[in-house]
Amino acid sequence: MTEEFTRLAVLSDIHGVLPALEAVLAEPEVTAADRIVLTGDITAGPQPAEVLDLLREQGDRVLWIGGNADRELVEYRRGERTEIPDPIGPYAARALRPDQVDFLAGLPRTRTLRVRGLGKVLFCHATPRDDEELVLVDSRPARWAEVLAGLPPGIGTVVCGHTHMPYVRLAHGRMVVNPGSVGMPYGRPGAHWCLLGPGTDLRVTPYDIPAATARLTRDCAYPDIAEWADYFLHARATDTEVLEAWGPKDGRS
């Protein structure tokens, strides 16, 4: 790891929402970034094949990390599980081509890059050690100590996704960054992402949600697509509701 990047665009939790991804990729600062880093849960949603095709068209500009939802689609397609917790998961798994299943299966779980102004940055989906455990912006210091234990020396910043809510916080001397979700935001609508280098800049890209909902409803065969799109694209779940529901899952009493 010798190359130092000046500016990275970080996209997480796209969840197969092609209109949201297209809006972010059209951002001038995303176009100008050295690389696009994906921190997982790329495909579990209404247009998984189309999202993968568009991202792979970007070539070497995209640096990939797999998330728990991507892993679940692969396991479902390979007969290693018979159900997926997310109701749209089985539909998304069946919508992938065999070559796409193989591609997702080969994605790394973490990646470490050097970024100007930030030094060594570790990218992961949920936490550095696990692709689905929960840490939240208000998780207690002892929880952060637990999930950050064992990181290599020199890692000053950890970038994660998974919870679909953007934040930046300091935890035991390390900066933790969550860019939020491109396709399934909680708290407020829009496609959330961030720029890294030399600082941390959380961004949200507005896009035409009614038009995107109509497009998904027209193009996606998932039976409940209209309700799915209305709920997730409009961010009907508030950040307060999600934090209250997920708080016990980060180990707090």
Automatic annotation (TrEMBL):
Gene3D superfamilies: 3.60.21.10
Record-annotated Calcineurin-like phosphoesterase domain positions: 7-193
InterPro entries named in the record: Ap4A_hydrolase, Calcineurin-like_PHP_lpxH, Metallo-depent_PP-like, Pesterase_MJ0912
Family of the protein in this entry: Belongs to the metallophosphoesterase superfamily. YfcE family.
Protein name as annotated: Metallophosphoesterase family protein
Organism of this sequence: Streptomyces musisoli
